[in-house]
Each structure stands twice: as C-alpha cells, then as structure tokens.
What we know:
Region (Disordered): 35-78
Pfam family, one: DUF2017
Protein name: DUF2017 family protein
InterPro entries: AosR
Organism: Cellulosimicrobium sp. ES-005
Number of helices: 6
Amino acid sequence: xxxxxxxxxxxxxxxxxxxxxxxxxxxxxxxxxxxxxxxxxxxxxxxxxxxxxxxxxxxxxxxxxxxxxxxxxxxxxxxxxxxxxxxxxxxxxxxxxxxxxxxxxxxxxxxxxxxxxxxxxxxxxxxxxxxxxxxxxxxxxxxxxxxxxxxxxxxxxxxxxxxxxxxxxxxxxxxxxxxxxxxxxxxxxxxxxxxxxxxxxxxxxxxxxxxxxxxxxxxxx
Length: 221
C-alpha cells in the first residue's frame, strides 16, 4: 500500500487487490451494523416533518431516514455508539437530539460507506493498482474511512493515543515470538490491528492532501 498523494485528477493511493477486498468488506460490514443497529420509523410511514422514503441514499435498507419518531435509545452495540455518539452530557438533551437526527445521520454514513466499497471494487485489478478518489468525493471517502477505523478501535479496545501508538510495537513483538493463532490476541487481533493501521494511513494521507489543496486554493470544484 502507498498512501494518498494529490494529483491533477484527484487523490491517488496504491492498493493490493487483497487490501481492496478487505476494506470493501469492512465498509459493507459497518454499513450493515448501522442499518441493523439503529431503530427508526416503519418504511412508508412519513415522519412529522421528514422527507419521503425516496430520500434514502443508495445502499440504505434500514430505518427510513427523515422520520422524527425514531427511538431515542442509544444503539446497544458500543461500536455503533461510537459512530452515533451522544450530542450532550445532558440525558434529556441527548435523547431529544438523537430522536431527531439519529436515522438521518446513520443513513448518510451508510451512503458514504457503500460508495467507498464500490469505489474499491468496481475495478478488479489483479495486481497493485492506483485507487483514485476525485476531489468532490474525498470528504465522503475520508469520513467512511474514519467510521471503519472507529469500529475497529472499539473492537480492539483502543481508548487513548498511547494505545494506538503502541500497536506498531505490538505487531513487531508478535511477529517475533507473539501468541499462537489459537490464543487471545493471536491471528484475529493481528489482522484487526493491521487493517486499523492501514485505514489510518489512508485516512490521514487523504486528509493531508485535502488540507494541502485547501491551503493552495484548490479544494473542491
């Protein structure tokens, strides 16, 4: 993998075919988590002031966005709660905000996760190949990568910057004489750590390119 760099036609990274598949599958998994983990109004039932069912983005099959009658209960999965956090420390304010915005926010996140997955796998290269993100899609792609990374962080139990920085040392130790695949912290954790670091490099390099364009006065058309 090579991180994103800014070019005339957008931001370009280089990915192995296996990296494309893993990232696309994870984006799809996170989208499914959002659709299954967020309560909402019944499809076809209009909200008090929300848009019609046709507003839902491509890939959305969960609660219909735009309804203001959603359940204000936070999602039970802590990973989904990281994607849809409370807007306030005040319980009543947080519940009211969640009731009015949770399904809309989840739908927007699903839309950009589905778009990321499609960008990754629409071309099916057999070897390392450029992964190009147009400037007008970069913000959504960066957001989708961030959402995938947040879910991985929750599954890995990461809470601090120090824990994130320690992942490189963890991989080095396990590469030498780490736990067997059958032990806790074996192959499954190494896989999640590797993908977490991969998404971090992609997300950070993409944002760096966007900021550089912004400072240079390029940005989105």
